[in-house]
Amino acid sequence: MPHTLASLAHHSALKLTVLAGEDRLDTPVRWAHASELIDPVPYMEGGELLLITALKLDAEDPATARRYVRRVAGAGVVGLGFAVGVNYEDVPRALVTAAAEEGLPLLGVPRSTPFIAISKAVSAAVAADQYRAVTEGFEAQRELTRAALGTEGPAELLARLAAHLKGWAALYDASGTVVAAAPDWAARRAARLSGDVGRLRERPAPASSVVSDAEGDDRVELQSLGTGRRARGVLAVGTGAPLGTAERFAVHSAVALLTLTTERSRALQEAEQRLGAAVLRMLLAGEPDHARAVAGRLYGGLLDAPFRVVVAEPVAADGAEPGDAPPALDALADAMESAAARTGEAVLAVPEGARLVVLAADGGAAVEACAEHAAVAQARYGGQPLPRGRAARAEAGRSGAQLAVGLSAPSGPRDAAHAHRQAEQALSVARRRGRVLVEHEDVASGSVLPLLADDAVRAFADGLLRALREHDATGRGDLVASLHAWLSRHGQWDAAAADLGVHRHTLRYRMRRVEEILGRSLDDPDVRMELWLALKATAAVAEPYGDVPGE
């Protein structure tokens, strides 16, 4: 316990008497200091017992006494010790009254008790308190270490930490999800801090913050876990008062131990990544049996059940280097790996340059986390496709939607290469459509028209149709609309002419003019196909993500 004025007043060797402020004797004393300055406040830090003889102070003048007492009390001085029989035979009544009015404890110091004796008593108490705090801190460290090495993992460590702090503790994973809490009710309290945890995770580790909310009457401190660029988790502790020395020591020990358990060594991480990359290469090379043999038990039953392949890459602003965007891939990998860890399922995540390739169990938590992560990013644009162009992509980067993801259909180890191609195809469509996530099933069941919304395709279409549009601009006929009607009616003259409201001979004349201007025959099916796609591509400029009106 910290040394207080009461313990000094009850110290038999000091023989102090309490003259005012009896109800505040439980105030802790940080130090004892003697000063005869008229204004000692500039030299005070707060928490001191100020010892005086009133050598220069007119302690018998009520106004002077009130100003002095009010001044030192405002500076955080916790009490006055007045030497009796030095400059005054007794403690002046004006000083006693001023201290009582201010509520500042006033202790009478007999002539037989030198100020140095009081300073030594306070110093000894402070040293004893610090020793006790260090001893308790070391004991807490031993208990937490035993818990960390036990079979129950972080849960037991958090339970012992909460007991030591007489509060609660919670652990968040790299995605910001509460994975353990002690006592059990603390999980609800910790869940309300997800926003604060998210903001802390955005800062480089190590980082900390103190937070509170309207529903909680405790003081909550957040500590990030990890030694690298990104936090691997967050520890939250809630207490009824600021942490003392012993409690602070325990929290720091818990942070160190949890960092060791949540962030594996760099060498082990690199080795596992190399192994995962080798397993993926074998699967893509059509060698599933070798992949199983190399993987061993590292990836559990992932290769024995249907899985999905995820291929993701960053969507950076024009001119940005590829290295500017990997945090988006890191966030996706964290979300999927954290979800898999919570359910005990295996997941294989392999960085491939500026891409991320993930194998995850079909219908599992990791695939669901991928979809949720993509939905959150897409929701920043109200569910609409991401805008295009330099400024739009820059805005996408600032808002966090810096990702395009392709998801394959369910597959097995022998079809891993095919699933990888499916995921790459879905990724290509995601980038073209401006979507965060596209599943291969959506590509297979959807229309080919959205695939035409590409700069190269539109440039080809504009070049192919330019001569016809220039002809129409002179007012000498509507060749583009006529060509569209004729192709849409599969070359049926009467039906196409009826759509246009012209005679079929007029339509025949216009089609001959198309052939003359383009220098190509409409009898060639390849020419008809190219012209039809060109018409659709130019129409897709106005309707890039939906069907063309009238179709």
UniProtKB/TrEMBL annotation:
Record's signal peptide: none
UniProt cross-references to InterPro entries, sorted A to Z: CdaR-like_regulators, PucR_C-HTH_dom, PucR_C-HTH_sf, PucR_dom
Domain of life: Bacteria
Domain PucR C-terminal helix-turn-helix residue range list: 479-537
Domain Purine catabolism PurC-like: residue ranges: 10-125
Pfam family, one: HTH_30
Protein name: PucR family transcriptional regulator
Organism: Streptomyces chrestomyceticus
Lineage: Bacteria, Bacillati, Actinomycetota, Actinomycetes, Kitasatosporales
